[in-house]
Specification:
single chain; about 70 residues; mainly beta; 4-stranded antiparallel β-sheet; 1 helix; 4 strands
C-alpha cells in the first residue's frame, strides 16, 4: 500500500506499508519503508531505503522490547 509519493524533476520519494503473514507464526506483520531515488540524464543514480526494523522485530517477537533509559 503506497501511503504517499513526492516527485520532482530529478528525485522521487515514497512511503509504503507492506503487510505480510509469516507461515511459521501466522501473525500478521506490517512494515513501513521509505524509499528515496535520484535521477540524472534519465538514469537512476541513487536509491536509498529506510526500514523501521525495531518495530519489525517487536512484531516478529510478539512483544515490546524495553530498552534502558540513557541519561
Amino acid at each position: 500500500e503506497q501511503e504517499s509519493v513526492m516527485l520532482s524533476d530529478n528525485s522521487a520519494a515514497s512511503l509504503m506499508r507492506y503487510s505480510l503473514t509469516p507461515t511459521a507464526s501466522g501473525q500478521p506483520i506490517s512494515i513501513r519503508i521509505a524509499v528515496f531515488a535520484t535521477f540524472s540524464a534519465n538514469r537512476l543514480t541513487s536509491l536509498r531505503a529506510v526500514i523501521d526494523t525495531f518495530d519489525l522485530v517487536e512484531q516478529a517477537l510478539g512483544r515490546q522490547i524495553h530498552l534502558p533509559k540513557i541519561a
